[in-house]
Design goal:
The complex is a heterotrimer of chains A (115), B (256) and C (130).
Chain A (H helix, E strand, L loop, with lengths): L5 H27 L14 H9 L1 H28 L5 H24 L2
Helix pairs in contact in A: 1-3, 3-4
Chain B lengths: L3 E9 L9 E9 L5 H12 L18 E4 L2 E4 L11 E5 L6 E3 L2 E2 L2 H9 L21 H7 L10 H5 L1 H5 L6 H11 L7 H8 L13 H5 L6 H21 L3 H4 L8
Parallel strand pairs in B: 1-5
Antiparallel strand pairs in B: 1-2, 3-4, 3-5, 6-7
Chain C lengths: L18 H32 L1 H11 L2 H23 L1 H4 L3 E2 L2 E2 L2 H23 L4
Antiparallel strand pairs in C: 1-2
Helix pairs in contact in C: 1-2, 1-3
The chains are: A mainly alpha (115), B alpha+beta (256), C mainly alpha (130).
Chain lengths: 115, 256, 130
Amino acid sequence: MARSHKPVVWGLFAAGGTASAFLVPVLAITLGFAVPLGLLSPTDLSFDRVYSIVSHPLGRLVLFGYMTVCFWHAAHRTRTTAHDVGLHNDRVTMIVCYGAAGLSTVLAALFLLSL
Amino acid sequence: MSARQITLEVLRYRPESESEPVFQSYSVPCQKEWVVLDALNYVKDNLDRTLSFRWSCHMAVCGSCGMVINDNPMLSCKAFLRDLPDHIRVEPLQNFPIERDLMVSLDDFMDKLKSVKPYLIPKQPTADPDGTYKQSSAQLKKFKPFAMCINCMACYSVCPQYGLNDGFAGPAALALAHRYNADSRDQGRRAREDVVASNTGIWECTFVGACSEVCPKNVDPAAAIQQTKIASTVDYFKDLLMPSGRKIAHPEGDTT
Amino acid sequence: MNNAPYIRPMPASWWLRQGRYVRYMIREATCLFVGLHALVLLVGVYRLSQGREAFEAFLEALWSPAGQLISAAILIMAVIHSVTWFNLTPKAMPLWIGEKQAPGWIIVAAHYGGWFVVSVIVLLLAGGLS
């Protein structure tokens, strides 16, 4: 029996699971609710401020890494769950899920580089 | 002593006369200290001699009386009636072919247990003149919980991945592989990875965690499998960086 | 009859049969919202690259009732993800202190502590440490 190449996607899945467990709730609050609720002022999320943070080399790198592992976390878990609920054509599921994650990763790189 | 009247609803399958299993109810006068196995034995002795089920030790050691009791797999010798309602549904273990009544086929489980090389694979024979491999109590503690499995197959019964994937090695076999991997006297992790880290090994597990919840011996197969996933991932990337390391790491004792 | 063992079929709805499987499926479903969150970020970066007006339109959409509904769904599912993820860490990463295995709650508590600290830091950074 051959050893599996799953460690590649599983590694991304686990990294994404950990990063998102720490960060999604606070980011969802920061971006989605903090300004409407008055927790942050509108200037905190102004175009100039956000642009300077995101376009900083470190900002680009961190954001790219974070988005990438989130995409692959979602893709891998969606793949296994699709199998759980009866979609047993794993090849198709794999192409759709990992294809979407790969495309999103490429788009993230392109958008971040275009800043 | 007064008897408590219990309704046992047992899934019957008699392959010579039935094409699929059907439930049959028995009303059993039970003593309050009884376990479900006692009630089944009462049926066998007094009500219906044709009822078939496996048991041996009656003390949660042999692992042969595993069955599904009110939706949960357990040892029927450890399922006390005082913890159960008056209506008890008894079924054979899930995810296994039913041979007759409460008896399931063990063949697939036995094959999978053997496939993970569940024996010590030392790098070289011990230098100790009396032929033993010394181990400290601290080293023993690292794997002892994973050595407590009695092969009752309760974990397979609740594992949806075992039900969904015929090839999946399953919780107990992978926990047993981890038991040897974590043993200080053993060097066989890389040899086991051919099965354990294949597409029918640990990577089929989605960490449902039910195996560990139902284990009557607290073996925690879910923990064993997640730890093996991490170790195998590290090994995978090590091999990617240093492809030659893989062959050296293959000790003798790998006979398959 | 053929004396063959009987193999019980496993319906696609197997996970509805027990609470533990339903909870598992909810846990697995959180990944869709982690993905959705990353997509929101992706759109945000795209709009940012298009300039001031585009980014401000993005924020306006994000803070509209529909946008807040999406954020709320992401937040709720993300918290479920965080809790289930951290609660399982002792199984994947047992901690040995000398000869003893540390109790699992210590590892879980350390993760919750880290989660709290990270969240506060992100909020402070977002507010310009004000």
